[in-house]
Structures are given as structure tokens and as C-alpha cells.
């Protein structure tokens, strides 16, 4: 039986197919009745589902992250597509086609990983190359990087999103850096690699991405510096001392990449590489998040999305 | 005799050579004595010159923009290099080597112009290509574009700076656009071409770049739209009507390229192309202006520039 | 039968009378049931109407802008008056008394139009007078001006609101200008005429006022300059060239009338006329919108309106 | 002998005439030499004077506020006209023509005072009229109002400036109020009268206007309420009790007239009269201060003033 | 029968006990049905109660502030605990145990009052001591101070909260002042006493705390100065004149205690005492309000409160 | 011979005594002449000295940090006291009385150090006590802490200033913490100890305090976390593992102590201890810096300091 991806579901459609239960909440309405709010997901997006007249028994019959078979009907409510779910049932993972649920199939993961290995391996600066190898050779690090998200909401908020954003930014750096001879492109590429690594500890990726205690108390910028420091200690234990100034520049690239104090950057960029990293990061993140706003918009009015408070505007959805 | 470029002059050096008198002012000190402040320029930069005990006769012996032969001695004053000029004399332009004074020699101009022709000529969209041809075929426009500056101070503030910034940005657009399939790269390239054209009317480039009345009263954003409108009328008189929606998108690219209301943008970017144009423009302008801050800095303290109020920080000057 | 104006309807009242259906939306509740939200309007204001248990057939039985006969009962919900509509039926426009629905009856329209003709015709400056005549003589322009709104929400957000705001501001200019001899009152009056004309293209007035694509992509400030430029071309084709400096000042009055960058003004006012126009425009708009907040408030607490987030405060409602 | 008003002095002119010594300071230069900086004033403006090689004897030979006879020569220094004074001598006040020094001759004072009496006397509200009479009948208050300034710098910063600003604003209120039937014009006029009275205590007008301790510690807004309270006590001791609500509204007009928290307004305007008062006050103050910037500008470049940091822009000086 | 304090009620609990009906509202749902929203209170906190299918008769059977006996069941709705009330009945105050409802029993009130008397009585400065006695000897003032709240929401928003905040701040002043010899601790203590007294008039404490007309039109800062002025007149009528400078400093302490213009402070602190008062006030208020956020949070996620928009963050709830 | 402390020097005084040459700069005036600017220091403050007609020989005859014997005369220039130095001569350190130059004599240093030992040693939490001992037992750390400054300008900008600020803040924490039972006072005290330790690396204290490269690239907040991490590794190598949650809270105290994003805080305070630490730190720093502004002010006008742009106001200087 053919599954319709969430992104292709339309209003008023009967649905009988598999989803991933990304989140579930048992709620009480004002009159005291119980219902379940589901966040249903597949590779193409997410969909809110309402299961009325529910109880604890149904709620406990599946867990967050399980695959579930749902019967229901879609509708537009408050400008967003949702599904009235009349039945939900836990599925055996073996029953589902994994490629329909994971944005990153093994191939895509492999491609990005290879690209990362190539970019770091191709560096001429021996210290950066050794440091890169220390990260690449850390199996636990790599296995977490493959599944890490870059955000809870907004841009690249899906497993593998951190790897994609990281590699994309490294490639942008490789492309743009050489246009400005005064920029040290290798430093820029390595900064792109490092800049968001702290998110591996800031976010927990079990089920939906969410903030860890450490993430909220310390934040990915400081954690990123801690991860770099630890890896430099590893490199130094096996090689000569890491150059002091190069280390300061790497730390600065992490510390300043938010670009402005009001965005939680403890330092402003003071090197051309830090400045460029901040702007390219911003560009990639904004294009990704604006694209998501456009793609996930369900406004009936054909040319414009609904007003989006996070970006303070409506976006134009091109005809043609 | 070999001329030392301004950028290579050091403290305490005796100077006897040609300069361009970019600006001159006759001033009175508190006690009533007169002196002349010169802005001396060559291809590599500018230098402030002080001619003490001057009078109207000396002041009137040369004009802004003239080449002058100066005798004097350099010194650091308030952290900046300047020259105590003891003699200044108007030169015949035939006496100077033009390539020492013009940042854009004929070759560089030609290269950028060819690049522009190629970029606009290579567009597949027939309307954009016709519109590009209308600009390229307007001799007066092209001759002004060759010598226009992109700013009075800050980035690309020299004759030809507008052309360089425009072509650089078009090339960035051509490089970055294809990485995001959801972006219409041709539209982005054309927006890069249009975005600052209003500066041809906003700035007057006789002698030093300065604001025109129209520039201060109306501004390059609105002027740019007026220039586009005029050129579209030209195209429409010779061809079919210009597509309404394409025109609105081009106008929007000009109108929103400052990105934020507080930077004088009457509209926020609401298309992916406008968003990307704003960020790439910002990136190119910031790299250029930070580079200028670093290059023109004379702080003795080796690793850091002086505090620069315009960018709100000191910059790190790498030891390499 | 006597109709009760919307502004005089009270809580808990049975209603059986005509309205204009300014807007209608078919919605689905969380359980999947359908209902219609109506925006009912007459000359005195608007009222939200809820028609429960509706379906497509009822929804399609009338169009936005139609006159409808409604049966229902008013109530206060979330601090605002609304009507539970039990029946809605399309009416023949011939059945309604137009003066009960149009804020501008023919007389008021005529009065404002005459006032506009008189103000523009009374100008001594021949260039301004000819330009004014070009606008007044453009029938399409005038017919749109009569019905244009000045905003989607906030101040003067009704058909004819633009004409009222324009003429009111011109009269304020005529009153206040002569108190400051350094101000060119004719320029100020003409600036008041021009300042919001771009809203004729920014807003669409079919049914409820809403933004056009051009309005959102380009904005009424730039559109206003385009309209001025076009009309100056008309004047110049019939007369001598329009004085360059006068034109710049008119453009500046449009371009700077929002007064501050953060309100989307691409230029700050730099002439006394532009400064004064900005302040008088602000005064007239604020008085109008605060008055609307007070008049449309339904808070039970007698002396104060509810907190209004748009203006960041509660307003005092005088006991008299 | 004919005196040239300060506003008509030009560069390079020999001067031998009377001035008012508005201020004087004995300074030491970096090498240890002493000189005097004078602020010379007449009705038309002020002029900075430099007396080199001075000593305590010269400095003590006249006081601030004295009329002095100066010999010297004008020059432009740092873009402003100043005078190199070679001789300064104290004059007998009887020797000078007072009308050349006082912006307010007796006639102008009398005219404004009469206008004030008429505006307050013409009020129909008996409580406001009695309160107005209490102020008008307070001789000490009136004699201070005649000579008070409205500011130390910026707008209306001269003796009598407070009276002029007050009466001008009351007249604007009388003109604009009736255009909005929802506004209580008498309340608006009385608010205009009260709004800046606290400046009589905030500023000291002996010699140049300067802040008093009370002005800096408490401020004219709170002082103004204290003055109103005291006067209401006076009225109440002779009449019936002053209506509570009217009093609150008057206090609110004073308390909120700065309009925004960031301008030191402890409350935002919440009545239409307070809103209108704030905007008219702002309009009158801004026109006055922009006019002063234009009139006192000495930039050689004909069309534009120098950049003025207080208003964040250059102003256009019309060619007429 | 033992009453469970509100703060100890859990989800899904049956409740049959007394509450104070702090507020009640009769609402209409979208379909036209009526229901009552109750704010139930006791000493430990407040709880929202929903009484469905209500009518005017039930609504009128008790008043705001009455004690009521409620039967119902608790539940979590939208992340907050509420109670579905099925029965509500007015109680005779004699039936309830007052100490379960009043945050301030007589003992606590007495303790704070004694502490206040001791702090003011212990001042060495005779003028401050006399002024303190004038306040303490004003019975009406004291009886209102005992029951005043310090805010409508946020910190110390309960009867007696003003007294607690005032005494707490005075004690902080007594503790911290002596650590800085340059600070006049007695002035600081007296400023702490005065700083929020205007809230006695700004807020009405009948039933729930709410703003008075005077509070909204004039504000507690200006009212506080009026109260001080009145009391100084009392002191002066019985003693010698109050020292001018001391009075200005007291007024300044009130006027500047919000610390920044944008928080409605008409003056910035310019004395060390005013600076310190502002910071200690801020510290005490913030600790109190963050504590309330943590205590009243019902988020299921153990370590963090829900996001609180007023403070712009989630707070960490320690596991200990 | 008796030395007059800098803070007691008056205008027009002849000076012949020892100073510490805190800084020296060889400058060129506009005419090309050379002079030396000295920063002369002693325990009581600093004084600018001008040595005219100097040359390299004089400049090289002493170093920054040397004691010098100066002959000269004081004067007020631009509102600040300075000295015209006519002779400067290097002194043997043995010739000077060290207690006249060091703000921290051995006794004061010893007292603060003992206080620190006592505060850390008195902690009941074994992990905090062990961690404190690790810092106290690190001789290099302690010897740098004794001489560290807390800032380059502003508050506590002198050798030993960091120790004083740290101990003062710890004592404030010990005083204020127990007033709020919900606060963990030991955690607060330890946070006070840690919060600025990163300044030991951020600032270099040879001669005048100045920023290090690491300080500018990484900043004292991130450095502070690195120092903590290193010390925890030390503790863990000798003891059991440090509790994870306690470590996160300590890191959070450092990371959030600037309190607001715009002050370079990468995280907002989310625990009561972090909130309190931020406010007490702010209080102590502000009192110290306002005190310095008042003490170092030389305005002739008795009651007020000059306008200080860093704090945006004038301060009141109390009489008596």
C-alpha cells in the first residue's frame, strides 16, 4: 500500500497509514474531558493529530518515538493542517519502510560524512589536520554527530540537521573564502566545522530535540569551547604543543559566531574569519528557516504566507 | 625617481614627490593664524597633510583634484600618520604616472566591465537579458558606472568602487545561488546588479565622493527604483510589456536590500532572493570595510588596531 | 422597521436586521465540525458574528461585500461584543438604505472633494497648481481616491478614509503653517496631499481593505514617488520643465514622512516642511486611532479601556 | 555709532562695539599660559570670543552679565564664527541701547502677557478660570515667568523663552483642539499653560540659564505638579473644593507630556488631551530647534548645515 | 475537617473545602452558554476555578471577597492547575479559620510594624526622626500601610506585601549601607521607607489589588512625593523648617528609584544613596518574583519551569 | 621631606617629589615638535603630566613602572588637574616609601587573603571546600590573584582590585544570602569567588592593566569556565568525581553573571543564586565606579561633577 507523505496530505482527506509518534500529550479540556495531542512525523514533515475522548490506557499503549498506525481525517484548523485521529495503534518497526521516515537515509549520511572527511583531510595546516583527525577518530563523537539536530525549532531542527548545516557551511566557506585573499580559508573552514559542535551537548536528540540541563545552564558556545579544549589536549598528548595563537583563533571563532551581544555572543568578531563565519552561518540558517516557513505554510491566500511572528513578516510565495 | 606609495610611507620620513590633492581647506587657528589641511591621495590610500603659516595665495595656487608636488616630513599625530608639508606646487597631469593614482587602471576597468557584460549577457530569462542590454547600451550610464564610488567613507569609497562592489556581488550571487535550489539565481544576480545603482545619483564623484542634494533628499534606494522604472519604459517601448510580477520582484530587491528598517530599508526582504541579496551585500561590504580598518591602522601595539567607533571594536591584526 | 446601528447594539439583544458581510470564513473546530465567522459591518462600525453548525451550502449562498439579513442574539465574549447568528440570508442591494452603510454618503464625499479642489486650486505657486490640476483632472485617480482607505487596521481604515485623512491633514497644514513664517505653507499643504497617495496602490479596497502584492513588495512610500514622477511627466509634456529643486522637495516630503528609520522611513526629514508634515500626520493619525480605541472598547470597568497592545496602554474614558 | 548685530557679523571683520558678557572662563593652555573664553551675546545671538595672554586682573575687571566694550576681529574656526578679542572693558549699562540686547523688549513681553491673560480669562470652566487667576495674581510667579527660559540649550533657551513657548503652545491648542470634537479644548489649553512651569524652578536664569540643584534632583515634571498642588490649595482656601477628577487630569497633563518613558515621562499619555499636548509640544519645540540649527549654521557648503549630532542629521538650507 | 492549602493540591484530587473568592466573572462561551470563572485564594496561593452551566442566580449568590465552600475536582489545563467546581456556596466568615487565609496574621503584622518603628526611631538625624514620627503617628496612614499591596501582579502582590517589601528593603539598607563608608546609611534607610509609599494611593486593596484612577493618571512616584511634601508640611508646622537639601535628597530618592528612564523613572539616580536604593529594591523585587515563578510553576518536566514571558526565560528548579 | 599625595594636590602648586611613571608616550604636535605625556601615579590616584620640548633621550631615560622624581607645576586644563613637568629623573626604588604607592600594602593584602581563606574554608559543602582548597593551594594562582586588577578603567582598576572586589562580593553574599531562605548561600559565596577569576588571564597587570590577546579573543567569562574546569580536574584526580549538577551550577554562575545578553552574557541567570550574584556584582561595581567619578572630579561648580559620558549623567557631590 502506498503511503502519502505528510507534506502531500491535503484538506479533507481520509488517512490510514503509518507515522512516527514524535510527541504525545494527554490533556484535559475545560470541562474535564481527556484527549491526546499527537505530533506525527515522517521524512517530509510533521502533522498535529487530535485524538478526542481518549484515556490513560490509549495514551500508555505507545511511546514517544514509536511507529504508529493511524486512522483519521485531515482538516484545516486555525490555518494549519491537522488530523482528527480516530484510531492509533503501535507498530513493529520492522513493518515500516525506514526511508520514509528518516530525512537522512544511510546514503545521505554517508555522503555528508565523506564530504566532512574530505574537507578536514584536505587541510594543509598540519595542526588543523591533526585536530580534525582527532574528531574524526572519536567514534562516540562521530556517531552522535550523525544524528544530532541543529535546533529545537527553526532551522535544521531534525536528526542529522547539525551534520548537514555543518557540512553546508564548510562548503560555503570553501567557496567564498578564496574570493578574499586576505582571508585564511582553512581557518574559516575549520571554524565552520567547530562553530555549532556544542549543540551535541546542548540538545538531547532522543525523540524530539530538546534542551539538556547543561544546554540551558551553560549553552552551546561555552560547551563548544570545552569540547575543543578537550580535543586539543588529546592532540597535544600525542604530538607537539598546539600553537597558542591558532588555538585562540579557533576559540574566538566559536565564541563570537553569534556576531552580536544581543544574540548571546560573549565576544564580537574581531578577525576577518570570525566576521565571515558569522555572516555565512547567518545566511545559511536564514535561508533554511525562511524556506521552512514557506514550505510549511498553509495560508489559502496564494501569494503570501501567514504572518510569522518569529521573523516579523509574511513571506511571498512565488506563483509560476 | 621612484615614488613611495602612501601605504608604504613610514614615520619620520622625508618626502618629495607627487600626490593628488583630493581635498584642501584653509583654516584659522585659535590665535588667528592661517594654515591649510590637505587630503593627499594616490592609488594606495590617503594621507593628511598640514601646511602651516599658509595664506590665500598658496591656497588658490591649485585646485581640488589637481596633481601637486609636495615637500615635507611624515609623523604620527594622534595615532595617525600625517605629513608636515613645507612646500606644495601644482603639477601638469602629463608629468605624473597615472597608474600610480588610479585604483582602477584601464585594464582593471576593462576586466570588470567585460565580466559585467558576460554576467548579464549569460542570463537565460529573456526579459532580464533585454533589461540588462538596455543598461549596457546606455553609454552615459556606463561611463558613469565606470567611475562611480559606492560610498563616501567606509567600503568601496573610491572611483570605480561601485563597479567593483557590483560585479563582486554578482559573482558571489552566481556562486552561492546554485547551492540553494529554491533560489532563482538569475533574479539574485540581477538584483545584485541593480541594488546600488542609485548611488550614481546619490553621490557626486567630482574630486572626492560627496552626497548630492538628490542623494540626501531622496536617497539611493528610491533613486534606484526610479532608474529601473525608466529603463523598463525603454525596454517596453521596443519590446512587449515587461512582466508585472518580475518587475515587482526587481523593485523589491532594491527596496529591501538594507534588510532592516533601522538601516533605512523601507521594506523587509520577503523573498528568498531579497533575503540572500541583503546578506551577501552585507558580507561583501563588511569584509571590505574591516579590511580597510586593518590596512589603514597605525596603532603601534602590534596585534590590535585602535578602537574604531564605527564598528564598535578593535580588530585583531594577525602576526601571520 | 428601524435598524439599530452596530455601535448602539448592547449585550443580550435580539437582532433581526440588515448588515454588510464585510468578510466571511468557513472554519473547522477541533472536533471537525464546521462554522462560519462573519464580519458584519455598517456605517457605525463592525461586529463579529458566529454561525454554528454551518456548511458549504450556507457559506456559498452569499459573497463578501453582499448585504445580508441576519437573525441572532448579541453577547460579550472575551470582552468584545459579538453576535450568535442563527440565520443569514442574502439581500438585494435595493432593499437597503445605503446611507446606513457608507461612512461617506455622497454629500460628505462631495464636501471633501470640493475642499480638496479648493485647497489645491488656491495655491499661488504655478508649478504646484498645475501639478494639482493634473491629479484633479485624472478621473481614474479621483474615482479611486474617493473610495480608498488609509489603512487595513488602525486609523482611517474605511473606504473614503484616505480622502478624509488627506484633506484633514491639508487643513491642519493650512492652519499651523502660517504660525511659523520660516515654513513654506504651500509646500506643506502639497506634501500633505501627496504623502499617502501611494496607499491607493498599496491597498486593495474591494471588500475589506487588504494589502496588494505591490503594496507588500514595494510599499506606499516608493509607490507614492512613482505616482508623483508619472504625474510630473504629464505636467512637463504640457508645460515647461518642472523645477528640479521643487521636485526633490516634494519627493522628500513623501520619502521622509514616517519620520524615523524604524518606522520604515528611508530618509529622515531634513526640511522644516518635512519635519512638520511628519508631526502633523502623526498627530492626526494618533488622535484618530486613540479615538477608535475608546469608542470601540467594551470594558465593563467604566473609566478605562482594556489594555490595548498596539498602543501599549489602557486609555482613560472620561465620565464627563 | 551703529552696532552690527552678532547674527550679521561676517568672517574677517574688525569689531569695536558693545556686547553682553554672558559667560567668561579663565583657562590654562597645555603649556601653562592663561587665556579667557568669552560668550558674547546680544539680542540676535551669541558669539565665542578668545582673549589670549590674559591674566586674573583682566578676568576680574568685569562680571558675568555685564555689558562690555570689545575690540577684536572675527574669524571662522572649526566651522564656527568666533572673535579674537584684543581688548575688553566693562561698560555702564546706561551707555547701551537695551533693545539691542533683549530678545524681549517691553512691548513683546507685554503682548505675550496680555495674550496669556486673555487665553486664561476666556475659559468657560469656572475652576480652570479661578486657577488661572490664582497664577496670574501671583506677582512673584508672573515676574519670574516673564524672564524664564525654556531650556539651557536647544529650543527657547533665552530669557522669556518659556513665556513664548507657553503662549505659542496655548495658541496652537486653541487652533487645533476644535478640529477634533472629542477633545476638551479648554483642558488642552490649560495643560499647555501648565506643562513646563516647573522649569521656573528647574532652571536658574541669573546670567546664562543653568540647572538648579532642585532641577537636577527632582526635575521640572515633578516640580510642576508641586506648583500646581500649591496653587490648588490657594484656590481651595478661597473657594469650594477643586474637582478631584479635573485635578487628576491636570496633573496627568504635566506628568505625561514628554510622551515616552525613555524621554523621562513617568506616565504615558492616556487621555486625548494629554496625547495632543505631547504632540503639539513636540512639534513646536522641534520646529524651533531645527530653525535654530539652520540659522546658526556657518557651513560654507550652501545647501546643507553641518552634521548636527543632537538631531542626528544635516538639514537642508533652502536657496529660496 | 482538615483543609488542604492550595499550594499542596495535586492533579485529579477531589476537593470539598473553604476558599476566599478573590474574583469572579460571568462569561459567555462562543455558543452562547454561560459559565463562571473563579479566582479562589487562601494564604498559600490562588487557584482558577471553572463553574460550567452557571447563571446569574449562582453568580449573584456571593460577592468578591466572600468566603465560599466549593465542591469540585482539580486538573491540569494548559500546564496550570485548575478546579472544575460543581458547587459553590457562600460561607459565614465566622466559620473559617482566618489564619488559613491571611498571609499576614496579627503576629506577623505586629512584628513588621515593630521593626518599622524601631528602624525609624533609631535614626540619629533629628529631622529624619521627626519625619518618621509624623508618619508613624498618622493612624490612617498606618492602618492602610498594614494592608497595602506592593503590586497588582509580580512581586509582593498581596495585602501586607507593601509593608513586608518596605521593611525588608530597610533592613537590607541597614545591612549593606555600612559596608560603604561613603554612603549615608540613615538616608538610605529612610529612602527605603519612602520609595513605594505612593502605592498606597496607586493601588486599591479592596478585594484584589487594582489600579486607582489616580494611580494610572499620576503614578506612585509623583504621589509619593506629594505624600512626603504633605508630611513635611506637618513636621514644619510643629518644628523648625525642614532642611532644604535634605528634602531634595529625599524627593530624589523617590523620584529616581526606578533607576532608568525606560522604567518610568523621571530622573536617573545621581547620589550614591539613590543608586544603592535602586539596586537593592531591584534585587529584593526580582528575588521575590523569581521565587513566585518557581513556586507557582506546574510544569511536569522536573528541572525547569515553563517559559515565563514576563522574565523572558525558563527557571531552573533545583532537585536538591 | 613630606610627599603630597596626588589626591591632595591643588591647582597652581609647585611640585618636587616622587611618583610612579605608570605610563609614558612620546608624541608629536601638529607642527612636528616632540613632547612626552606621563601618567604619574601614587596610592591615592593618578595625574597627567606634560613634558614639553622633549626628545628620545629623555623618553628613554626611564621605563614604564619606574619611580621618577618630577619637578613641575599643577594647573587645571579642560577641567582636569595636570602637571607641567619641567624635569623628570629615574629613582632607585630603595629611595621611595612603598606604602605611599601601593594601594595594597602587605597588611591589606594579608587581611583580604585571610578573609578569602576563611570564607572558603568555612564552607560546609565538602565539594566546594575541596575545590576552594585547590585554588588556595595553587601558589601561582594566588600570587597572581594578589596583584590582579578587576578592570582597565572603571571599577577596581588597580593591582589588587580583583582581590578586593572578589572578597567584598563574597562578604556581601554572606550577608544578603541568609535573608532569603530559598537561596543556597554557600553556592552564592562560591559563585562570587569564581565570577571574575577569568580576569587574571583577560588582563595583563605589568605596568598599567591592559587586555591580553586571549582576553580580547575569548573573554574572561569563557576563560573563567576554563579555569574552573581545570581545577575540577585537579580535584577529581585526588578525590571522587565532582557532582555533575553542582558543576553545572558553578559554570552557570560564571557564564550568566553579566545578567543580560547586551552586556555580553551568553546566558541569562536562571537560578536564584545566579540572579542574586549578578545584582550584587552590579551593585558593588556601580558604587565603586560612581565613588571614583565623584572623587576624581575637579569641576569648580561645588555641588555637581562634570557630565560623565560613561554613566550618562552628572553626579551630586554632597556639601558638608
UniProtKB/TrEMBL annotation, chains A, B, C, D, E, F:
<dbReference type="Pfam" id="PF01336">
    <property type="entry name" value="tRNA_anti-codon"/>
</dbReference>
<dbReference type="GO" id="GO:0016787">
    <property type="term" value="F:hydrolase activity"/>
</dbReference>
<protein>
    <submittedName>
        <fullName>3'-5' exoribonuclease YhaM</fullName>
        <ecNumber>3.1.-.-</ecNumber>
    </submittedName>
</protein>
<dbReference type="Pfam" id="PF01966">
    <property type="entry name" value="HD"/>
</dbReference>
<dbReference type="InterPro" id="IPR003607">
    <property type="entry name" value="HD/PDEase_dom"/>
</dbReference>
<dbReference type="GO" id="GO:0031125">
    <property type="term" value="P:rRNA 3'-end processing"/>
</dbReference>
<feature type="domain" description="HD/PDEase">
    <location>
        <begin position="158"/>
        <end position="295"/>
    </location>
</feature>
<dbReference type="InterPro" id="IPR006674">
    <property type="entry name" value="HD_domain"/>
</dbReference>
<keyword id="KW-0378">Hydrolase</keyword>
<dbReference type="InterPro" id="IPR050798">
    <property type="entry name" value="YhaM_exoribonuc/phosphodiest"/>
</dbReference>
<dbReference type="InterPro" id="IPR004365">
    <property type="entry name" value="NA-bd_OB_tRNA"/>
</dbReference>
<dbReference type="GO" id="GO:0003676">
    <property type="term" value="F:nucleic acid binding"/>
</dbReference>
Amino acid at each position: 500500500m502506498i503511503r502519502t507523505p505528510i507534506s502531500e496530505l491535503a484538506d479533507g482527506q481520509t488517512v490510514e497509514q503509518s507515522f512516527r509518534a514524535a510527541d504525545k500529550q494527554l490533556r484535559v479540556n475545560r470541562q474535564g474531558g481527556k484527549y491526546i495531542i499527537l505530533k506525527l512525523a515522517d521524512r517530509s514533515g510533521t502533522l498535529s493529530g487530535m485524538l478526542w475522548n481518549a484515556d490513560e490506557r490509549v495514551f500508555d499503549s505507545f511511546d514517544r518515538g514509536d511507529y504508529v498506525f493511524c486512522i483519521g481525517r485531515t482538516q484545516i484548523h486555525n490555518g494549519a493542517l491537522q488530523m482528527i485521529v480516530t484510531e492509533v495503534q503501535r507498530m513493529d518497526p520492522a513493518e515500516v519502510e525506514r526511508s520514509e521516515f528518516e530525512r537522512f537515509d544511510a546514503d545521505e549520511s554517508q555522503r555528508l560524512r565523506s564530504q566532512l572527511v574530505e574537507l578536514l583531510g584536505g587541510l594543509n595546516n598540519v595542526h588543523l589536520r591533526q585536530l580534525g583527525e582527532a574528531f574524526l577518530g572519536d567514534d562516540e563523537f562521530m556517531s552522535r554527530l550523525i544524528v544530532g539536530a541543529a535546533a529545537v525549532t527553526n532551522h535544521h531542527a531534525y536528526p542529522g540537521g547539525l551534520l548537514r548545516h555543518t557540512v553546508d557551511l564548510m562548503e560555503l566557506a570553501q567557496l567564498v573564502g578564496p574570493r578574499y585573499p586576505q582571508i585564511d580559508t582553512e581557518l574559516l573552514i575549520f571554524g565552520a566545522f567547530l562553530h555549532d559542535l556544542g549543540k551535541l551537548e546542548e540538545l538531547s536528540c532522543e525523540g524530539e530535540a530538546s534542551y539538556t540541563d547543561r544546554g540551558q545552564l551553560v549553552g552551546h558556545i561555552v560547551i563548544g569551547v570545552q569540547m575543543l579544549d578537550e580535543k586539543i589536549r588529546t592532540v597535544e598528548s600525542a604530538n607537539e604543543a598546539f600553537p597558542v595563537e591558532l588555538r585562540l583563533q579557533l576559540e574566538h571563532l566559536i565564541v563570537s559566531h553569534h556576531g552580536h551581544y544581543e544574540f548571546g555572543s560573549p565576544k564580537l568578531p574581531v578577525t576577518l574569519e570570525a566576521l565571515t563565519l558569522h555572516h555565512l552561518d547567518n545566511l545559511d540558517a536564514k535561508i533554511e528557516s525562511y524556506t521552512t516557513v514557506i514550505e510549511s505554510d498553509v495560508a489559502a491566500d496564494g501569494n503570501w504566507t501567514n504572518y510569522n511572528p518569529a521573523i516579523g513578516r509574511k513571506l511571498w510565495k512565488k506563483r509560476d
